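Final report, Chapter 2: Outcomes

The project's central promise was a pipeline that accepts a single protein chain and returns its three-dimensional structure in a standardized token representation, suitable for archiving and comparison. That pipeline is now operational. To close this chapter, we reproduce one record exactly as it appears in the project archive, with the input sequence first and the structure output second.
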Amino acid sequence: MRVIHRVQDNIKLLELSVSDDRQKLFARVVPQIDCHSAAVEDIRREIETISPAELLEEEVIYDICLELRQNKGCESRRVAKGKEPEIGRDGKLVWLVRRFRPGANGAEDREFADFFTLGLFENIEAGREIARIYRPGTGAEGIDVQGKKIPAKPGKSFNARCDNTVELRSDPAHENYTSVIAGNAGYVHDEGEKFSVRETLHISGNLDWNMGHIDFVGNVKVMGDVQKGFHIKARGNIDVLGSALGENVLTSQRSISIKGFHQGFERSSVSAREDYSVDIAHGVSADVGGNIIIGKEARDCLFRAGLGVRAPNASFVGGSAWCVMGFEVKTLGNDAGVTTAIELRNELEVTKEYRVLSDTIRKHETAVAALELHIGPYLKNRQRVPLLRNPFRAKMTDLIAKYDSVAQSLEKLREQERTMRESRPVQDDARVNVIGEAFPGVQLSAGDAQYTLADRVPGPVTYRKPAQQGEWIVDKFQAMRKE
């Protein structure tokens, strides 16, 4: 401290000292001969020559005056205090969406969890505001004990570490923050120090309890296996570098690729707007708008391809395949004579709508057959029904009415199916190619024309669809055209 003011009279010796940080003013008082007549106003007036009135410690000044009247002094009493400058709040990032943080455990981040549907991230569309970066506060200026202003100290800015997948956008209407806008569709990948909006969701291992079901607006890439019971829905491609182990529903608006084995059956399905490729498939039901590509084997599968089935190095055994452009395989069927059906269809017949229609027709046919069994001879001899006694007569009347309704609906559905099949003919160059060999039990169809192999046929050979209602043509091998 250093003395900055000194005054002496008959009442007191007053020295005022300021602290090194200039925030405190201290008084040293030595009583003089007339100290008993000390007045608070005189002491305050001297101190105010150094420090503004609003900074004075009034109670301390009053106490010094009382002590002085009793011939007591003081060595160092704080009589004024300055105001420290306020540091502004630091800038910060506030998230508006749920982002994916590597290593986070979904079960721990939620109060409760369906372990199949953890929801570890949120789908982001391009142009969406995903976060806000708030600017640092300016703080408030201070004042030292002599009344001089001390500049405010602003907070630290938040330095966003992001790439070109996001845009930082200012808005004059919101001067206190900058908006973070997604530059593309995807999910927010947050690594703490940096973040981005990624179009491809990479799953480093298996798709299992750690991630749950996936519903994503971009591409999904699974480096391991898709465990039993887990589903993937993606707007982009789905790539599985391992296998899909059963009861999986895979849906893509583009293509699906499985490098390993794909186990299907009842609770499994594949739906892709473009292609589906797999090394080995067993019991897989697949509806695709493009090609189905088999690496080694497909067994007991149900395929619907908007273009073709291409398996030049693979075998296709059991099940059925509907395709528009054609079917090419190395081995078709097996020496056990397992029924294997290949059908050339038009582009409407391989759609899901047609499949739903076909399933509805089958259900109606089953219902009609069951009603015929219940009604028995009264169906053809309806004039006998009024002669029956109640309640059997009322029951039989209801059954016949229900039969007529279901039969009428069935006829309408069959007419709708015929219209879909006849509206567009099977393509003229559609064919079934066998490169290696085909076995008995293979059934080929195109429209109403059927062809069943009775003997083993060595390849390469091409089966061409019949002209209109003619017979299937067995021809020398002609490769399918590429799409």
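Archive annotation: Confidence is low (pLDDT under 50) at residues 105-114.
This record, like all others produced under the grant, will remain available to the consortium after the project formally closes.
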